[in-house]
TrEMBL record:
Name under which the protein is recorded: Glomulin
Organism for this UniProt entry: Littorina saxatilis
Biased composition annotated in UniProt, kind: Acidic residues: 295-305
Region (Disordered) location: 276-324
MF annotations from Gene Ontology: ubiquitin-protein transferase inhibitor activity
InterPro entries found in the cross-reference section: Glomulin/ALF4, YAP-bd/ALF4/Glomulin
Pfam families, per the entry: Kinetochor_Ybp2 (PF08568)
GO CC entries: cytoplasm
Length: 663
């Protein structure tokens, strides 16, 4: 049962009236109320406060200070009747006390951040007091929202569990997440009457100011905690919505009441992915009455200013307006909810092209991909995938790469592919990585391939790029075959002639960017062995196998030398094949020697069952010790990998010799 539900159920617990003679003396009455609170006597407390209807509002501040600390989760669980009586007493104070005093008294109790039960229970009381203030509430609403928002920010972010698939449903069972699921709905309920009053346009300066303050705090909830929650929902699966999803829907609906155009909020400054909106400085400014800036050490002056804020004397429209920057994380979470989860679509215009929106969302995608929370990484990949899936292949021209946000996003995807501990996210990153190449025109695709091959040192990622090169070459050769079928051999003859190539600005002609010199540029980057024959071939195995398979495909498929691969064979033999053969012989001999040493050590071992541990360091980091059996498995696996490389290399050399002999 949620904390909010417990509080609601406790409210049903009612005490019967207890006839107690009224106490006229104020001090004696306060003493008896204090005794009932100490004894946690709900019936006596109800009689003194609620039945006798304390007439003197001057006592409410002191009584609020006395009663509010009783609103703890412990009392809620063990003494629900006493908890409910205290709540009813504070509700009475908020309705019949002086509004400005009750606002400050309640905020004083909330800002201790001690208990969520106290926070949730006092919100309706604070709401009552604020609604009794004049329509121009001045800074009292801002002061309240700042205090309440700080409580939500004070809840720590959940830990980064490696939850995959159905396991993600367990996220809401975490204690920290449950706190968010209790506190955030209560906070949103608190805002509702103020949201209804201002509207997205807001008539008058006072309403505009309240609208900006409300919007600011709604956006802060997107940054913390919604970015950490799983907000997915697939209506086609007919599965129930999670509590996190319901909170997200409520929050976006609240935002629609204070923001008329989400596009304008998110994409006002596409150059750097940041946007600003009009806000207010809530601290360290003189009020409209001319009160001087207060010093933290002067408690009396500080209290006086707080009272002035709550009174409404310092009106929002008279304060200095500033431009507050929308945080990247808030904007990123909103971009995901609106564009991927389709929330708040009535505030999202349908007039912009997909490539434009793709570029506008790149900074937000980067912010999400580089966040430590796996839920944020998922949102970033989903945001990119959403727009890439909407575009046709080759839809993005080469100028896309001039966008300063493109390469940071590509590098962030690579980091996800390499280091993310969640297998599902690694594979999703790989799919987005491949799809992005497919959406670029041929010139842009070639340029990005060169960039990744030249800058990325990870063999697996470079191997993926080599596989994409092979796919593009295959598509180009198939296109030539179709042209030959319909137009005879004109296309082939045109490609063979040295000076009759198509115009260079034909960016979607794959033969221009994956044949001949352009292909040679890519191959030179792919065949580069960092240390020649001494390179760690096991570490480079993914790239080496991908490159050998590409070359084997070329010599088998391109007998007519459209790609000019046959002209490159002397270069490949000199710079790649020779060093690779030597390196394979050296690596195989080294691992066989290590394997023999391990076998000899096992033979000399005096007692059966005794295990010898070994340690291995990777990039300077020592891995957990390996047993002898594990070391043997590593040696056998390495030798198997070398055998595969030698087989493919031998087959490639055999095909080349056969083709040469036939020629």
């Amino acid at each position: 049962m949620s904390l909010l539900q417990q509080i609601q159920d406790a409210a049903c617990e009612m005490e019967t009236d207890l006839a107690i003679p009224p106490v006229e003396d104020k001090e004696e009455l306060l003493g008896r109320i204090a005794e009932s609170v100490t004894a946690k006597d709900s019936r006596t407390l109800q009689a003194y406060v609620l039945e006798q209807r304390l007439p003197d509002p001057e006592q409410f501040w002191e009584l609020t200070t006395l009663l509010a600390p009783c609103l703890t989760t412990e009392n809620l669980e063990e003494m629900p009747r006493f908890f409910t009586t205290v709540r009813r007493c504070l509700t009475h104070f908020s309705r019949h006390g002086k509004p400005k005093e009750m606002v400050l008294a309640l905020l004083e109790q909330i800002e201790g951040f001690q208990d969520d039960a106290l926070f949730i229970t006092l919100l309706p009381c604070l709401q009552n007091a604020l609604l009794q203030l004049p329509v121009k509430r001045g800074r009292s609403l801002e002061l309240a929202l700042d205090t309440l928002g700080d409580h939500v920010k004070g809840i720590p972010a959940p830990q980064n569990w490696n939850l995959e698939g159905e396991e993600t449903k367990l996220l809401e069972s975490d204690e920290t997440v449950r706190r968010f699921l209790n506190v955030v709905p209560a906070f949103l309920d608190f805002m509702q009457p103020f949201l209804k009053g201002v509207g997205p346009e807001g008539d008058g300066k006072g309403w505009q100011w309240e609208r900006r303050v409300l919007r600011k705090h709604l956006l802060q909830l997107l940054e913390h905690p919604l970015v950490f929650l799983d907000l997915r929902y697939n209506s086609k699966e007919n599965s129930p919505k999670t509590y996190s999803r319901e909170i997200a829907e409520t929050l976006v609906q609240c935002l629609t009441q204070v923001e008329g155009n989400f596009y304008g909020l998110l994409v006002q400054n596409p150059a750097d992915g940041k946007t600003t909106y009009s806000g207010l400085k809530g601290k360290d400014k003189k009020s409209s009455s001319g009160k001087a800036e207060v010093e933290d050490t002067d408690m009396e002056a500080e209290n006086a200013e707080n009272e002035l804020k709550a009174s409404g004397a310092a009106q929002g429209e008279d304060s200095e307006e500033v431009q507050e920057e929308l945080s990247q994380l808030s904007g990123a979470t909103l971009a995901y909810l609106v564009q991927v989860e389709w929330l708040g679509q009535e505030r999202w215009p349908k007039t912009h092209s997909v490539p434009h929106l793709f570029h506008a969302n790149l900074p937000y995608a980067h912010t999400l991909l580089t966040n430590v929370a796996h839920t944020a990484v998922y949102k970033g990949l989903s945001l990119l995938s959403f727009y890439l899936d909407l575009m046709e292949d080759l839809a993005l021209d080469v100028d896309t790469l001039d966008d300063d946000n493109v390469m940071p996003v590509v590098n962030a995807i690579i980091i996800v592919m390499r280091f993310c501990p969640i297998r599902q996210l690694r594979f999703s990153g790989l799919e987005v990585f491949k799809i992005f190449f497919a959406k670029l025109d041929c010139k842009g695709c070639h340029q990005l391939m060169r960039s990744v091959l030249a800058s990325c040192e990870h063999a697996g990622v470079r191997g993926v790029v080599v596989g994409l090169i092979k796919n593009n070459i295959d598509t180009a050769l198939r296109t030539l075959d179709v042209e030959k079928t319909h137009c005879g051999n004109k296309a082939g003859a045109a490609l063979k002639s040295s000076g009759e190539e198509k115009p260079v600005d034909d960016r979607n002609n794959r033969s221009l960017y994956f044949f001949k010199d352009k292909l040679k540029q890519l191959l030179q980057l792919a065949i580069k062995l960092p240390e020649g024959a001494a390179t760690d071939l096991l570490e480079q195995s993914d790239l080496i196998m991908a490159t050998l398979n590409l070359l084997r495909y070329l010599v088998l498929r391109d007998s007519d030398n459209h790609t000019a691969v046959w002209d490159m064979l002397p270069l490949l033999e000199k710079e790649y094949f020779s060093a690779l053969r030597t390196g394979l012989d050296m690596s195989e001999g080294h691992y066989k020697l290590e394997l023999d040493n391990l076998n000899k050590q096992a033979a000399r071992r005096p007692r059966k069952g005794e295990d010898i541990a070994a340690t291995v360091s990777v990039a300077g980091t020592q891995l957990p010790p390996m047993t002898e059996d594990q070391r043997l498995n590593v040696m056998h696996s390495a030798l198997t990998t070398f055998d595969m490389m030698k087989c493919v290399l031998a087959r490639l050399s055999e095909i080349i010799d056969q083709k040469k002999n036939k020629a």
